[in-house]
Design brief:
- Helices cover about 70% and strands about 10% of the residues.
- It is built from 9 helices and 2 strands.
- It has helices spanning about 5-10, 10-20, 35, 40-45, 55-70, 75-95, 105-150, 160-175, 200-205, and strands at about 175-185, 190-195.
- The chain folds into 2 domains: about 5-135, Globin-like (Orthogonal Bundle), CATH 1.10.490; about 155-205, no CATH class.
- The protein has a two-stranded antiparallel ribbon.
Length: about 200
């Protein structure tokens, strides 16, 4: 049996073994079963397509990487997930009856593909971090520019300045609305000092 066929046929068993080991990692704490598995089953299906589906493999990797970064995984933890997957594929393959077991050459091919996956994930992670860093630098520069302008023109109303800051924060975060609320100790109420975004009028109500 070709190794890609073996992966396709025993994909569920591989994913279950992988999930059982991967969920022991500290980074996986708090993830639901669905969040933990994420796109791993789809990735294995694409991997079982062999060398004919590099685009699909990359799509799955990019999506998986984005999800893991949002959950706070670092690069070592993401790479370890694929190292665990490699061990699970090897374990399931070796447990097959001799007449169904993939050849050494086929297994070497799949392990080479998994190693290339780790290299790709590393490159994608570093690119993501570089772009994220550039994004942060850009908006820090813009915020600094607003602060410098406020010092040069202190007569401008505070509410106007704060609104400009909020609009910049909205742009940086891709959010829809934001507001600054100040606590009035005399009344015990929150007072809106500034707001911005698509629903700022509702916030003022």
């Amino acid at each position: 049996m070709a190794v890609f066929e073996a992966i396709q046929r025993h994909r569920n068993a591989i994913v279950e073994r992988w999930a059982a080991e991967a969920q022991k990692a500290a980074s996986a704490r708090g993830l639901s079963g669905l969040e933990l598995r994420n796109l791993m089953p789809a990735y294995l299906a694409a991997l079982a397509g062999g060398e004919d589906s590099p685009e699909r493999l990359r799509e799955h990797l990019e999506s998986h990487l984005g999800s893991r970064i949002r959950h706070g995984f670092d690069l070592a933890e993401i790479v370890d997930e694929f190292a665990i997957l490699e061990r699970c594929v090897a374990s399931v393959s070796e447990a097959l009856p001799p007449d169904e077991r993939p050849s050494r050459q086929d297994r070497d091919r799949i392990f080479s593909a998994l190693q290339r996956t780790i290299v790709t994930v590393t490159d994608l992670f570093q690119e993501h971090m570089r772009l994220d860093e550039q994004h942060d630098k850009r908006y820090l520069r813009l915020l600094q520019s607003l602060a410098d302008e406020a010092l040069r023109a202190p007569e401008a109303p505070l509410g106007t300045r704060l609104k400009e800051v909020l609009e910049l924060v909205l742009e940086a975060m891709g959010a829809q609305t934001a507001a600054i609320l100040l606590y009035d100790r005399t009344t015990g109420r929150l007072l809106m000092e500034a707001s911005a975004g698509a629903v700022e009028e509702k916030l003022r109500e």
